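Let us work through a complete example step by step.
Step 1: write down the sequence.
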Amino acid sequence: MCPSRLILEHVTSRWGVLVLAALLDRSYRFSELRRFIGGVSEKMLAQTLQTLERDGFVHRDAKPVIPPRVDYTLTPLGREAAEQVWALARWTERHVDDVRRARDAYDEARVS
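Step 2: predict the structure and record it as tokens.
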């Protein structure tokens, strides 16, 4: 398996895209990010953040205070990746109707 394929899987995964997109706007604490994204389990968000941190896209800043505070931000590499992924997501949103029409036409041709 090509190394770039694994990286692509990380940034284009369901939760990877949403984490990167959210962090484009600002830094988040874990619970804030989970609420903002919605629908993601604690375990899956933790795994996604850890993977993105390992790949160099996300910076985890653990502050030595009580209660503990951890902030997540994009690294310069992460910001660049997030901008690319977000551009693809916006393109997809603009073409949802086109894809639906293509699917309908495909399905109609198969039924006939």
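Step 3: interpret the result. Residues 3-111 form a domain with the Arc Repressor Mutant, subunit A fold (CATH 1.10.10.10).
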